[in-house]
Amino acid sequence: MGDVEAAAGLAVWGADPVGAEARATLVEAGVPGLLVQKDPTLWGADAEAEAKVRLGWLDTFRRSRDLLPQLAELKAELADLDRVVLAGMGGSSLAPEVICRTLGRPLTVLDTTDPGQVRAVLTERLERTVVVVASKSGSTVETDSHRRAYLRAFLDAGFSEAEAGRHFVVVTDPGSPLVEIAEEMGATVIFADPEVGGRYSALTAFGLVPAALAGVDVAELIDQAEELHASLSKDRDNPALALGAALGAAVTAGRDKVALVEDGTGIVGLADWVEQLLAESTGKDGRGILPVVLETPDAPSPAARTCSP
Ligand SMILES: O=P(O)(O)OC[C@H]1O[C@](O)(CO)[C@@H](O)[C@@H]1O
User: Fold this and answer.
1) Which of 70, 124, 208, 250 could cysteine-pair with 255, CB 3.0–4.6 Å?
2) Residue among 57, 86, 89, 281 whose CB has most ligand 1 atoms within 8 A, to mutate
3) Residue of the CA atom closest to atom 9 of ligand 1
4) How high is the mean pLDDT of the chain?
5) Domain assignment of residue 279, yes or no
6) Nearest 5 degrees, angle CA 5-CA 7-CA 9?
7) What is the per-residue pLDDT across 140-149, written as a single tens digit (0 to 9) for each?
């Protein structure tokens, strides 16, 4: 199988033939250590100011543990609501969707603008439903539309405004426009970590609130993140470094696409999640790598099949 880099249950195979040189350069420049120290200069001078307040994802597990008592309390308070619907787009819903699908916990994700699909979700078991409205900015129009559609559905079903408010949990950054709306509705508000960008927010309140309500043991996820963190500053046995170096080297050598196949990872929905992480993170200044999700290593993607003559 060739070289393997593994830590905390994650493994990267075959990265060295592509990324060995890039990796040596990164190690020589001390990048793994600087990354763990959250050095904001790593992203270049133009990004330094933003990087200073956006590197919380490197040790989210430290602050997320503080959420555990609040999550246990919330789950107990809402014990009669066993249908969990998550309204959130992209970075605000992909991670909890993957976590719940992988662990077999029921979570309905509302991340569509298709009226038929939204209507179908709205009519089911309202009296048992808790809607998690997740938006870092608090201004994503799709998510706010889902919130309003659900509120209308509760009121039309005869809930009082106070009863309807109890069925909403809002996850957002402090100071976002959703805070005031949530307070007006009487919804529970759980603040996310403002130092973690939306697409890296898997282990902040964005991932943990819906996952915990759906019955996932979220403390275990935080433990796994802490275990992986120990590998990030190393020169070897560092799967993140091996993968990053290989991707960077491939792009530098002229590759512009990466095929993603989740088969064999045991993580359901991983390819779709990684697609967003890579596309949104690397598509800057006219440079980037196009992620393409495939069903199997030798299959063309559904999109490619549809387009072929
Ligand atoms: O959490 P928010 O602010 O609603 O954003 C949802 C998604 O929309 C984007 O801002 C743009 O697609 C993503 O970065 C993010 O994952």
Assistant:
1) 250
2) 89
3) 90
4) 93
5) no
6) 110
7) 999 999 999 9
